[in-house]
Amino acid sequence: MALRIELKPSERLIINGALIRNLDRRSAFLVETQCKFLRESEIIRECDADTPCKQLCVTLQVIYLADDPAEAENLFVLQSTAILKDLPGAAPYLLEIHDEVAAKNYHRAI
């Protein structure tokens, strides 16, 4: 089943690690095979990750887009442990994210 993606003018999209920028007009295309993609609205740039939670989100993006996410998964564990120490109330949310990572549902984990 194909996935239709519409892009606004100048909107960016990452598909399988390639950064694509739309030109000056709205456009649409179909993705006919399985791929890893993130729309610009879903992306947190590393330079904008100014809190531990945003840094964790960047790590989850790397895990999702990586061919071999094992190293980034280790970083995820370290970051989530640090967040848990500072913010014990985040435990239920971090557990849900951890469960998605363990199940390799990386996009859902983001």
From N to C, what is the helix and strand string?
EEEEEHHHH
Measured on Cα atoms, how large is the radius of gyration?
16 Å
* Overall pLDDT confidence: 94
Principal-axes shape call: elongated
* Structural class based on helices, strands and sheet pairing: alpha+beta
* Strand ordering within the main sheet: 3-2-5
The main sheet comes to: 3 strands, antiparallel
Into which percent range does the helicity of residues fall? 40-55%
Strands, count:
5
In quaternary terms, these chains amount to single chain
Content of β-strand: 15-25%
Q: What distance lies between the first and last C-alpha atoms, to the nearest angstrom?
A: 23 Å
Instruction: Count structural domains.
Output: 2
What's the tally of helices? Answer: 4
Uncertain runs are none
